[in-house]
């Protein structure tokens, strides 16, 4: 084989090696970046979950100390449990949060409540207070249980 063909093949081989080395370097860099993004995402999700757990515990403590209306606490705890552990809403004693949500979901909130006639709001509030009174013991038991639940 002539010497010039050998040199062409050597140069071609070196070019292929260089291209493969660059490809490997780029892929390694991309994998490292992806790994860092995943780590940041996991850290953010863990922090968010920890904050939600803390919110559930604060709400539960507020119920135990009668610092919040039971209906409000049930709605908020139910919303948080939907993200943290939705299976708990089907278990006793936590089922009361779902039951209260279902009983209150037809009632207007926020701007819709402000736009509703005051006599209608009074009737709805009476219904809400009656629900709270009826389920007060179950709500307090569930609040105590959720406060000490290990998520």
Automatic annotation (TrEMBL):
Pfam families: DUF2489
Top-level taxon of the source organism: Bacteria
Entry-linked InterPro entries: DUF2489 (IPR019617)
Keyword entries, A-Z: Membrane, Transmembrane, Transmembrane helix
UniProt KW Membrane keyword: yes
Stretches that traverse the bilayer: 6-25
Domain DUF2489: start-end pairs: 17-146
Name of the protein in its database record: DUF2489 domain-containing protein
Organism, scientific name: Marinobacter halodurans
Lineage: Bacteria, Pseudomonadati, Pseudomonadota, Gammaproteobacteria, Pseudomonadales
